[in-house]
Amino acid sequence: MNTQVVSRERSIFLSKLSFPTSSSDSRLQDEGNNSDVEGKVKNRLLSMWNNVKYGMKLKTNFSKESPVWLLGKCYRRIESPSSDSTELGTDVAAFQSQSEIASSDDEGFEGFKKDFISRLWLTYRREFPILNGSNYSSDCGWGCMLRSGQMLIAQALVCHILGRDWRWQPDHQPTTRESFIEVVNHRKIIKWFGDKPSRNSPFSIHTLVALGEASGKKAGDWYGPGFVAHLFRQAFKRASEDNYEFDSLTVCVAQDCAVYIKDVMEECTDKNGKWKSLILLIPVRLGAEKFNSIYAPCLTTLFSLKQCIGIIGGRPKHSLYFVGYQDDKLIHLDPHYCQEVVDVWAVDFPLTSFHCRSPRKIHLSKMDPSCCIGFYCPTKESFFNLIEIVQPLVIPPGRTDSPGSEYPMFIFCDGYSRDAQLSPKKLPPSELEYSMDSSTDGDDMGTEAFEIL
């Protein structure tokens, strides 16, 4: 059925390709136009096939009983918490104030919907300006990790400029100065990711591809999560040259699963001794070829931290932006839906394509072991609070007194990286590999009883 749809649409598009053939001059004149039209047809067919293959489902089922964690916020049915709860992530609640927990709980699942929809959704686009040195006017089929990275960074910018508690209200007209400023800043953040080769869009796919060329990457190549983390570090340094708003924000990328504290302190302290807000990106590999189940509770617990801005990873060769979890499934935003390019520099450009109304889920066992974890620390105190909280959480449970304690997800180290000779983190021993139950069905969506959107 899907093949028939694609074939039928392809015939419709190709039927429009008729060019004058009355003379050799007209053929030569139309050669360039013919090539342009054929390129657009190819992009449209590819994006159409991609949307059939990865088409967004409109309904997602969530359990009524289990809490949902979304980037440091917990949503659940309004009820008294059980003292003997064993839910993943509840141990982190001890580090958070009761007011923070109560404010999100009181909203219940309606609060989760508002929170999820407010995250920026950056997907494949088609018919944007051709990427320099290529014939690509769409990133459909190859740019998913770049888009996932954009969403991760966009979340950090939302926290930095609008705050974690900001919510998008699509039908709301601003009536106060504060709400008007929020609307302006919301659009400004989206503009920074606009699909055009402009220094006014410092995190566009054009900028990222151009930065990747220095390392041998080009448009059409597949980008790994660690490589994308370094691209954004470069993009931020470049952006700060043109925009004062990036002077108070910096990106640090961990080396070999190790965060060197003095490196971070040096990077985050400006020439006046003032702290810059920190986006900390930690590329990790949680297994050899498949995700190792010993890291499952470590990974999900990270979504309970208020500093967490998500994880980029996905299934093998299928990047996703993970923002939370419920039970043993990760909640994510999928960049694979191909949409028409939006001119974000037009007055009152439409916002609906930058916000997803359909959360999706994937079982932990299907996750690719290669991923990049993101944290946002607005203050020095927030950074040291993260160090204190996260170190015991990244060690697989029950292994603190065994050889497995050598295999945390990542570590914090005193000193500078230049003074250390740290080899890459060893992978877990083979007897611990691949113990995740692989009997799950092929559907990434949840099958519980609560329909949320």
Automatic annotation (TrEMBL):
Record field: catalytic activity: [protein]-C-terminal L-amino acid-glycyl-phosphatidylethanolamide + H2O = [protein]-C-terminal L-amino acid-glycine + a 1,2-diacyl-sn-glycero-3-phosphoethanolamine
Gene Ontology CC annotations of this record: cytoplasm
Alphabetically ordered keywords of this record: Autophagy, Cytoplasm, Hydrolase, Protease, Protein transport, Thiol protease, Transport
EC code: 3.4.22.-
Enzyme class label: hydrolase
Signal peptide extent: none
Peptidase C54 catalytic domain location: 110-387
Pfam families given in the database record: Peptidase_C54 (PF03416)
Region ranges (Disordered): 424-445
Protein's cellular compartments: Cytoplasm
Coiled coil regions in record: none
Biological process according to GO: aggrephagy; autophagosome assembly; mitophagy; piecemeal microautophagy of the nucleus; protein processing; protein transport
InterPro entries found in the cross-reference section: Papain-like_cys_pep_sf, Peptidase_C54, Peptidase_C54_cat
GO molecular function terms attached to this record: cysteine-type endopeptidase activity; protein-phosphatidylethanolamide deconjugating activity
Family named by the database record: Belongs to the peptidase C54 family.
PANTHER family hit by this protein: CYSTEINE PROTEASE (PTHR22624:SF52), CYSTEINE PROTEASE ATG4 (PTHR22624)
Record function comment: Cysteine protease that plays a key role in autophagy by mediating both proteolytic activation and delipidation of ATG8 family proteins.
Protein name per UniProt: Cysteine protease
